[in-house]
Design brief:
Layout lengths: L5 H6 L1 H5 L3 E2 L9 E7 L3 H5 L1 H10 L5 E6 L7 H6 L4 E9 L2 E9 L2 E5 L5 H6 L8 E4 L22 H15 L9 E4 L6 H15 L4 H10 L1 E2 L1 E5 L2 E3 L5 H8 L7 E3 L4 E5 L2 H10 L9 E4 L3 H24 L5 H5 L2 H15 L7 H15 L8 H4 L3 H8 L1 H11 L4 H13 L5 E2 L2 E6 L2 E5 L3 H14 L7 H9 L2 H4 L9 H12 L5 H12 L1
Parallel strand pairs: 1-5, 2-3, 2-7, 3-6, 4-12, 7-8, 8-9, 13-14
Antiparallel strand pairs: 4-5, 10-13, 11-12, 15-16, 16-17
Length: about 525
C-alpha cells in the first residue's frame, strides 16, 4: 500500500475529494513559508497546523509552515518522507451523536532538524515573509538554561535556539522593526508567551548581545499568551491496520483527536487585529478568541472542565468505574455532574451566561466520547493540588455568594479523603483497596505519607472517626492555602458525607444517590 505524500495525493485527487476534506491541491511549493513552528508532535499537527490548512483551502492565508524539530530525536525524517502531508481524524460526539471527520493536511512545507542541519535552520531567519512563530515544546520546553551558548550548534533549550535565530534575523535585516515575529506559543503553562520572552531576554543578557538587539526584541516582536483546548490522542496504534485499509494509504503521521477545539490568544489590540486579518480563523468556523485578557477563559476551563473531572473521577472510581466513558454511561453521574457544574460551579464565574452554558454542555459530549478511553486512575494523579486549583475556589465563591455550602462540591471533598485511604506505600504510591483489589494513589510523597499515617491511626473503626479524618485533612493549610476547618460548616458537612460513604461497601454510591436526589 502506498505511503501518503503529495504525489500520491495528485494521483488520487478525485477519490479523496469525494471522501475526505483536503487542503488545496495547488502547488504548495509556490506558497511562501510564513510560519515557523517549533515542534512536530501530535498536538500542533491536529490543532494549529490543521487550522492553517483550513484557511489555505479557502484562500484566506496562502502561507505554509516550516517545522523545526526542537529536540534531538523527533519526527522530522518521517515528516519529510511524507512531504509534510498527514491525516487528521477527528472523532467524538456532537449533540450526543457520533461524528467522524477525516482531513488530509498539507500546510507544512518541510521539517528541519537543527541537530543535523543547523545552518539550514539559521537560514530561515533570512526569509522576509516569516511573521509567526508557533510552538509546543512541552511544559518543560520554555526554560532558561544557563549553559547554552550562542556558538552552540544547536543550543539545547528551545528559548536559546529562538534567541540565536532572532539575533541572526536582527543582523541580516539590520534591525528592521518590521521583521520581528508574532509568537503564538501553545505550551501548557500560564503566561507562556511572557515566560518565553523572559527566557529569550535572559539568553541575550547571558550572551552579552547588543543593547540595540534587546530593544529590537522588545519593540519589534510580540509575545502572546494562549490557552489551548483539544484532546489529541495521537497515533492510533491499536487501530492502525484497520484505518490504513479504510483510508487506502499508509500514513505514519496519522493523528487522532476529539472534535472539540478552543483557542484563546491574549494580545494587544494592534497585534490582535493583525492576527485576525492575517489568520482569520473565525471565517472557517473555528472557535478562536482574540482577547486582551485570557484569564476568564482559563478560569472557565479550570473550574468547569478540569473541575468536573476532579469532583467526579474519585467518586466514580470508588463506585467501581474505571474510565470516564463508563462513568458517563451511568445516569447517576450525569445528573451529579449537571448539578455540580450548572448549580454550583457556574454561578461563581464572571463570563457571559450563554457562553458558560455552551462550554458546560460541550463537557458532557467530551466526557462521553466513545473514541477516547480515559482511565480514572490516570486522572487521579496529584488530586490534592488539583482540588485546590480546580474545586476549592468554586466552593469559596459559592459560599461567598450564597452564604451556604455547595452539596456536590463538598461531597467531592469527602470522596477525595475516602479515595486516599491506604496503609502502605509501595514503589512510590499509596496502596488503596477497592472491593478487595489494590489500586495506586499517586501524589507527592509527603502527602501520601500523611494519608498513610492518618488512615493507619484510625484503624478499622473508620466510621466513628470521620470527624477526626476530615478535620485533620482540613487543617493542612499547606495543601489548601487556609485551614478549611475555619470555613463555617464545611468540616461538619464533609464529615456527614464521609460517614455515609464509609458506612458500607456501597456507601459511595448510596451517598451520591441521596445527594443528587435532594439537590
Amino acid at each position: 500500500m502506498k505511503q501518503l505524500n503529495r504525489n500520491f495525493l495528485a494521483q488520487k485527487a478525485d477519490f479523496f475529494l469525494s471522501d475526505i476534506e483536503m487542503g488545496p491541491d495547488t502547488a504548495v511549493n509556490a506558497l511562501e513559508e510564513r510560519v515557523l513552528q517549533f515542534g512536530e508532535g501530535n498536538f500542533l499537527r491536529a490543532f494549529v497546523d490543521s487550522f492553517i490548512d483550513m484557511l489555505n483551502e479557502q484562500d484566506l492565508f496562502n502561507g505554509i509552515i516550516v517545522v523545526i524539530q526542537p529536540i534531538e530525536h523527533g519526527l522530522t525524517d518521517v515528516l519529510n518522507a511524507q512531504e509534510g502531508c498527514y491525516t487528521v481524524l477527528l472523532r467524538g460526539l456532537e449533540n450526543q451523536k457520533p461524528v467522524v471527520r477525516k482531513r488530509i493536511v498539507t500546510s507544512i512545507s518541510r521539517g528541519i532538524n537543527p541537530y543535523k542541519d543547523y545552518e539550514v535552520y539559521l537560514e530561515t531567519a533570512k526569509n522576509p515573509h516569516l511573521r509567526f512563530i508557533i510552538s509546543n515544546t512541552t511544559e518543560a520546553g520554555i526554560a532558561f538554561l544557563e549553559t547554552d551558548k550562542l556558538t552552540d550548534k544547536p543550543q539545547v533549550s528551545f528559548p536559546a535556539k529562538v534567541t540565536a535565530l532572532l539575533y541572526e534575523r536582527y543582523k541580516y535585516f539590520s534591525g528592521d522593526p518590521s521583521k520581528g515575529f508574532i509568537f503564538i506559543p501553545c505550551e501548557l503553562i500560564d503566561d507562556n508567551g511572557t515566560e518565553l520572552k523572559k527566557a529569550i531576554l535572559q539568553n541575550a543578557k547571558n550572551w552579552e548581545l547588543p543593547d540595540a538587539f534587546i530593544e529590537w526584541i522588545h519593540n519589534a516582536n510580540h509575545f502572546t499568551n494562549t490557552l489551548v483546548d483539544r484532546i489529541v490522542t495521537g497515533y492510533p496504534k491499536d487501530e492502525a491496520d484497520n484505518l490504513t485499509k479504510e483510508l487506502g494509504y499508509k500514513d505514519n503521521l496519522l493523528v487522532t483527536a476529539e472534535i472539540f477545539q478552543f483557542f484563546a490568544i491574549e494580545a494587544s489590540k494592534e497585534t490582535a487585529n493583525e492576527i485576525s486579518k492575517t489568520l482569520p480563523f473565525h471565517k472557517v468556523g473555528l472557535d478562536v478568541v482574540l482577547t486582551e485578557d485570557v484569564t476568564p477563559y482559563k478560569l472557565r476551563k479550570v473550574r468547569i472542565l478540569n473541575g468536573a473531572h476532579t469532583i467526579s473521577v474519585l467518586a466514580a472510581f470508588l463506585c467501581g468505574k474505571d474510565t470516564v466513558g463508563e462513568m458517563m454511561d451511568e445516569p447517576l453521574f450525569v445528573d451529579y455532574l449537571k448539578k455540580g457544574i450548572f448549580q454550583e460551579i457556574m454561578p461563581g464565574l464572571d463570563l457571559d451566561e450563554e457562553d458558560l452554558k455552551s462550554f458546560a454542555n460541550s463537557v458532557f459530549d467530551r466526557f462521553a466520547n466513545p473514541y477516547i478511553k480515559h482511565y480514572l486512575l490516570s486522572i487521579s494523579l496529584n488530586s490534592i493540588s488539583k482540588y485546590k486549583a480546580r474545586v476549592l475556589p468554586s466552593i469559596l465563591e459559592y459560599h461567598k455568594g450564597k452564604g451556604e455550602l455547595p452539596e456536590i462540591l463538598t461531597l467531592s471533598f469527602a470522596a477525595l479523603i475516602a479515595f486516599y485511604r491506604g496503609t502502605s506505600i509501595e514503589e512510590g504510591a499509596l496502596i488503596g483497596s477497592r472491593n478487595g483489589q489494590p489500586y495506586k494513589i499517586v501524589d507527592d510523597m509527603e502527602i501520601l505519607t500523611f494519608f498513610k499515617e492518618l488512615w493507619g491511626n484510625v484503624g478499622e473503626n473508620t466510621k466513628g472517626n470521620s470527624e477526626h479524618l476530615v478535620q485533620a485533612v482540613c487543617a493542612k493549610t499547606e495543601y489548601w492555602g487556609a485551614n478549611l476547618n475555619e470555613l463555617p460548616g464545611f468540616s461538619q458537612k464533609a464529615t456527614a458525607f464521609l460517614t455515609d460513604i464509609l458506612a458500607d461497601t456501597d456507601g459511595m454510591k448510596k451517598t451520591l444517590e441521596k445527594v443528587v436526589s435532594t439537590c
